[in-house]
Design goal:
Shape: globular
CATH class: Alpha Beta
CATH superfamily: Vaccinia Virus protein VP39
Number of helices: 10
Number of domains: 1
Order of helices and strands: HEHEHEEHHEEHHEEHHHEE
Bound molecules: S-adenosylmethionine
């Protein structure tokens, strides 16, 4: 298979990235579960998680479709896939492939889902065309994408502000869209989905929560882009990471994450 993948996904596959994605997925599991319940995922369904990373939402799907159903996780990153396969339930299979053009058969899934792929790798319209191709008529396409403007910390701290600015500018600098959540409903309608639903949610994080390191660890995963674009020097980055982590460890500090918009709709004839 070709090792060239479309899009411009900027997040590096460094040590710690699997753990960062795992903690993020865990924190969002209750809201993802609510979305899947509202969609009405049923035992026996065949579901696809495009850009599943080291697991994505495949575990939540596996529990809902049961032994009579099947879940496929698709990603370009072999390291993520190997990690996912190591603990995969019997009804989940992980495949390497391109989110923008897989070799999976057309109309073969009841649900096709993507989280944080369109915003980071780009070209949501093209991704949606591929998702629609893979979905059966009457099946569901679902997306979850962020709006980074709700990343706020209290009490305020200059190191938080520096890292937040570096994160937003690094994504913008490579063509990623961390405001995709705002227009996701319109994008889904324009792609031709019917009965489009719209459910934004926002998570709050305290010093004792597993996701406390979200901002420093994500900037670390964007280190190459941050340095290449001259957003921070090596020294400034190291200092901002240390100061921000110290502030986030303070029991009195709390922050809100990016807002996540969940949008889903039905494939029409
Ligand atoms: C931000 S991560 C999100 C992972 C997972 N969806 C989750 O929410 O936990 C985005 C994922 O998309 C994958 N990805 C980016 N571009 C891709 C492409 N062209 N084809 C397949 N996977 C891609 C990356 O390897 C990464 O695992």
């Amino acid at each position: 298979m070709s090792t060239t993948f479309a899009g411009h996904y900027p997040i590096e596959s460094r040590t710690g990235e699997i753990e960062r994605l795992r903690l993020q997925a865990e924190a969002m599991a209750p809201d993802t579960g609510t979305m899947l319940d509202r969609i009405g995922v049923e035992p026996g369904w065949r579901c696809l998680d495009i850009g599943c990373g080291p697991g994505g939402i495949t575990g939540l799907l596996s529990a809902r479709v049961g032994i009579g159903g099947q879940v496929v996780g698709l990603d370009m990153n072999e390291e993520f896939l190997a990690h996912a396969r190591a603990s995969a339930p019997a009804n989940v299979e992980f495949r390497r492939g391109d989110a923008y053009g897989s070799n999976l058969p057309a109309a073969s899934f009841d649900l096709v889902h993507m989280r944080f792929v369109a915003s980071t790798a780009g070209d949501p319209e093209r991704l949606l065309r591929e998702a629609l191709r893979l979905t059966r008529v009457g099946g569901i396409v679902a997306l979850q994408e962020p709006d980074g403007s709700t990343l706020h910390c209290h009490p305020p701290h200059p190191a938080w502000d520096r890292l937040k600015s570096a994160l937003l500018r690094a994504f913008a600098g490579v063509g990623a869209d961390l405001t995709l959540a705002r227009r996701l409903y319109a994008v889904a309608r324009e792609a031709g989905l019917a009965d489009v639903q719209y459910r934004p949610f926002l998570i709050g994080v305290r010093s004792i929560d597993p996701m406390v390191d979200y901002l420093p660890s994500t900037v670390e995963s964007l280190r190459g882009t941050v340095l290449r674009l001259g957003l921070l020097s090596e020294t400034e980055l190291a200092a901002a990471l240390a100061q921000c982590r110290a502030h986030l460890r303070d029991p009195g500090t709390a922050f809100t994450m990016y807002t996540v918009a969940q949008v889903w709709g039905r494939k029409q004839t």
